[in-house]
Structures are given as structure tokens and as C-alpha cells.
Amino acid sequence: MEEDFDVRLVEEVKYYRPAPEYRKNAWTDDYERAYAEFLADPVGFWERQAHHLEWFRPWDSVREWDYPYARWFVGAKLNITHNCLDRHVADHRRNKVALIWRGDEGEERIYTYYKLWREVNRFANGLRSLGVKKGDRVCIYMPVVPEQAIAMLACARIGAVHSVVFGGFGAQALTTRLNDAETKVVITADIGYRRGKRIPLITIVEDAVIDAPSVERIVILRRQQEYPVDIHPERETDFYELMEGQPFECAPEVMDAEDPFFILYTSGSTGKPKGIVHACGGYMVGAHYTTRHVFDFKDNDVYWCTADPGWITGHTYVVYGPLMVGGTVVLVEGTPDYPDPGAFWKIIEDLGVTIFYTAPTAIRMFMKVGEQWPDKYDLRSLRVLGSVGEPLNPEAFEWYYRVIGKGRCPIVDTWWQTETGMQMITTMIGEPMRPGFAGRPIPGVVADVVNKAGESVPAGTGGLLVIREPWPAMLRTVYGDDARYRQYWETVPGCYLAGDLAIKDKDGYIMVIGRADDLIIVSGHNIGTAEVESALVSHHAVAEAAVIGKPDPLKGNQIKAFVILKLGQAPSERLKNDLVYQVRMMLGPFAVPSEIEFVDTLPKTRSGKIMRRVLKARELGVDPGDLSTLEE
């Protein structure tokens, strides 16, 4: 393996041990026991999880595995919205708050489970009146408003396959997704709000559908009351007019466990975007199980995941998972720094948020602006902190733990993907936390770090992150392109290839250090970009960093670093030398950047991931390719 991935883990073990009450009260109070029980009977383990949900018809078998295809809860009948809404309306949660929405300008709306159930049913009946039926594809291209979640749930209610597209994509990217899914109906809004500015959405949709012949209707949520956009009745329908006169009850479509549930497109940073297809039954079980156990969800929790529902995190851990466990969900349209950098902390104080799940990019932004902002607010309601989207570097972990969690809240740093549908690796609450390491595979998941032949590598050695066994929420195919699905399972023998480079320590904790293709070969050394970036960010003056490889006639490549400084820090030659020394001391001379450029921003996707290929293309003066996912 060494010739493939010359990456070593410096064993400087530092664990944070949670307070005894977290081990005592967590759902999974003994990781070793729970994981052993799973390994002893994987099928029985997942069957027990499925019994926490209500089904219209039970399964004939839990799993059928015909590599690389799996079927879960074979023969079972269900509808996920029954578990998100109906079963709560029928019991003591009927008048419990299901959803609290905060708009960009501070406006607020509250939905109880009963109110949300009624609105979903009315909109589902409205979609049926448009001719939408089971299996039809519906695109949802909306800002973060309650109607976005209502539209998703309404599609699920009637068995329509929703394809949620993030409301920041341009017309061309939207057209690509509409055509690939052969979309029948588009649900959108006239505008979204971002930092006080109005972002037109309907004009983008109108441009996109010109070249999308399958689209029959557009449903428009009109938010501008003073100057409402015109509705063209031959093709367009107002969101709330569609609901007028519709019954409050809508019988949920009976879905087979293996019926397609939704399509969600990956970023499309290379080539055509992949339409990841998830199935009804397995996704439902995986989303419910992980929400309940990874976050140690209690009935009185107020839960806030900052992700947009246009991404997989928003599907699983904003809409479906939290509603299935009967939680109170916070939904926010605003950004972390508007109207000021205290915006998120004010919401936590105002609403008494107990579980907070956000991205490392946001955490590092908070670090940059300083501790004085969170220190203005009372954050004592927080009980659990989470991280998602990319590796949480040790410095950001330390800050998050100390400044936001006040040294008492456990951090669940989660690794998973659009394709996995659910969290796969984390440190379960109650277990020791190791900064820089996501943690171990959750009970129910068999993850490993391997070489290209699929063989486990020694502890402390870099390799490819893989999943060795199927799991319920796994993708079923890539829409219209099953060959791309098979690539996930056929590149490394017998394994699902995640595409990430990782290291596993002697205790089984896994550090994800970046995409496998985010490697820079310098003088024969394979250097992970995340390693160098983490070394740079560990300097007190640095807020964020990205590194790329540049061709070098002698070394093969040299490393160039792009660095954003914290407020109050100024670029200088002295600082460049300090950063070079920092990397040399932490990683060795082979990893030292040959160039360091101080910048104000870094190109990122709208989900917060740094687009290193854009930096590299600009540096080399070549075409950067598809930029549809680039944050403006």
C-alpha cells in the first residue's frame, strides 16, 4: 500500500472524554456491545430498527443481496409521510411544534404536527389535481421556506419522485437536471432572500424550461405580495391557489419498499451530474435510525440542521429523519453572517436549540470573526453539536468544543454522502472524541481503509475508504445510467468505493483526509491536500486554506497554498515564512508549499466544499470546466 498512498498518521493521541451523563443517557450507551451485536446478526439488527416504524404490510425478507444490487425489506408496503406525520397526529404529538421557520429578515412561522399534516395533504391533493401520479418526477427548486418541506412531503405522500434542486443553481444546470429526470412538474418561488437581497428564481425556471420539453406545469409560491408576479394560467399555477378548496385529508399512496423515493443530483463537478436514486423502505429505516441514535434524540429536543434541503443533508436530517422521530425542527433561510456574525447564536438563544448540526466551513467562518459574537448570547440550551460536509480539522473541533459547547457538549463529526443516504461514520455520543477523526463506523455499517486490491491497510497508514457490506439507505442506481452505479462497487473488489482517502488508527477511529483524487505527488510522495491545509489552519493567523499541485520539472509537482487570514492579521513575508515552518514541523519538508498566496475568498460549491480544481485551472490558465455548483 505504501507505494500507492505514502501517508502516515502522527500518533499524538488526544481524546476528549464526555461527561458521565452522556454515556448514561445516550441511546447507544455501549458502542462496543452494540457493534458486536450488529456483527453477530446484521439482518436481525436492521430488522429491529425497522420495527420502530409503522408499515402497511410487513416484509417477507429483510435483505436480498445480489452483488452489487441490494433489496431491503422485500415485499413491505409503506409511506414515509405516515411515519413523519400521521402517527404523530394520532398520538400526543398532535399539537407539538414540528417546524419553526425563520426568514432572512427575521420573520417567523410555526407549524404543529397537525397543521403540517393538513398543509401537506392539501398540497398533495393539489398535485393530484394537476395529474401528478405515482412515479412521476417533480422538481422542487425553492428557497428555504416551509413550503419547500411541504412540497417534498406532498410528493412523497402521493408517490411522486421528487428531485430537489438547490435554489442557487443557474438555468443551464437546472435544465440538465430537468431533462435527465424527465420532469413533469416544477415547483418554485418568485424570489428567495439572501442577506437582504431578493434573488429571482422564477425567471431562472422560465429560462430553464424552454429546453425541457417534458415539463407540463410550473407551480409558483408568490412571496412578493406588494408586486406579485403574473401567473400564466396555460402553464403556471399559484402555490396556495392550488391548495384552495382541497380536502384536509389525503390517503397516502401505498409504496413498495423498493419503489423509487427520490432522485438527488450530485454536484456535477466533473462530467454530467449523477442522479442518485434512493428507495422508499431502506432510506426510511436508515434515516430514522441514524437521526434517533447519532443525535441521541429526546422528545423535548429543539433541533437545528443548517443545511439547505436541496442537499442530501437537508433531505435526511432536516425533513425526513427529524420528523420521523417526532422532533421540533428549526428551518432558517438566512446566512450565518446576516444581519451580523451573531445571527446563528441569536437563533439558538431565541429558540432554545438543543442539537446544532452545521458545516466546518461555517465553523471556520465563525472562528475568523472572533469569539466575541457567540459570547454575546446564552448558548446553555445546547446539548449536542454536529458537523457535516467535509472533514472537521482539529483546530475547528477545538474551537467548536470550547467556544460553542463550553467544554461540555459532545461533537458528532459525521461522514456520509449523497450516495449513502445516511450517516456512516461518527463518534457515537458517550464515546471518547478524537479531534480530526470522524470516529468509527456506526453499528449497522462495515467501513474499512484498504489498498487498491481491497485489502485492509495497517493502522496509521493511508488508503481508500470503503464500505464492505450493503446498508438499507444505500443508493439503488444512478438514474438512467446504471453503469455509473456499478462503478461504485466494481472499482475496488468486493467493496463500495467512497472516493475518499482515509487513515484508521489503532482504536479503529477513521480520519477522512480528502478525496482520493485530491493527492499531490511531490518527489514521489503522495500528499493529501487536507493534511497540508490542516497544518496551515493550525497557525493562529489562518482562517482557511486550500492547496493545489503545480507541475514542476524536477519534483513532478510543487505545492501552492491559498490562505485566508483571520480578521486583524496582515499578509507579510514574515508570516509566509512562519507558515512554511509550521508545515515543515508538522508534516516534514516534502509537504512544504513552494508558494503561498494570501486571498480574501476561496471558490466553493454551494454546499461549502472548496473547489480546488478551479484554483488549479486558474493557476494554469486552463478551462475550469463545469462551474454550475460554484458559489457566487
Written account of the structure:
With 632 residues, this protein is an alpha/beta fold. It has 3 domains: 293 residues, Rossmann fold; 141 residues, 3-Layer(aba) Sandwich (Rossmann fold), CATH 3.40.50.980; 102 residues, ANL, C-terminal domain (GMP Synthetase, Chain A, domain 3), CATH 3.30.300.30. Helix content is 30%, strand content 24%. The strands form 10 sheets. A 7-stranded mixed β-sheet has the order 5-4-17-16-18-19-20, with helices on both faces. It has a 5-stranded parallel β-sheet with strand order 7-6-8-11-12, sandwiched between helices. A 4-stranded antiparallel β-sheet has the order 23-24-26-27. Strand 28 and strand 29 form a beta hairpin.
How are the SSEs ordered, and which strands pair?
Blueprint: H1 20-25, H2 31-40, H3 42-50, E1 61-66, E2 69-74, E3 77-78, H4 80-89, E4 97-102, E5 108-112, H5 113-129, E6 137-141, H6 146-158, E7 161-164, H7 171-181, E8 185-189, E9 191-194, E10 197-200, H8 202-209, E11 217-221, E12 236-238, H9 239-243, E13 255-256, E14 260-265, E15 275-279, H10 280-294, E16 302-305, H11 312-324, E17 328-332, H12 343-351, E18 355-358, H13 360-369, E19 384-387, H14 394-404, E20 411-413, E21 425-426, E22 440-441, E23 447-450, E24 462-467, E25 477-478, H15 482-490, E26 496-504, E27 510-515, E28 519-522, E29 525-528, H16 529-537, E30 542-552, E31 556-565, H17 573-587, E32 595-598, H18 612-620
Parallel strand pairs: 4-17, 6-7, 6-8, 8-11, 11-12, 16-17, 16-18, 18-19, 19-20, 31-32
Antiparallel strand pairs: 1-2, 3-13, 4-5, 9-10, 14-15, 15-25, 21-22, 23-24, 24-26, 26-27, 28-29, 30-31
Helix pairs in contact: 2-3, 4-5, 4-11, 5-6, 7-8, 10-11, 16-17
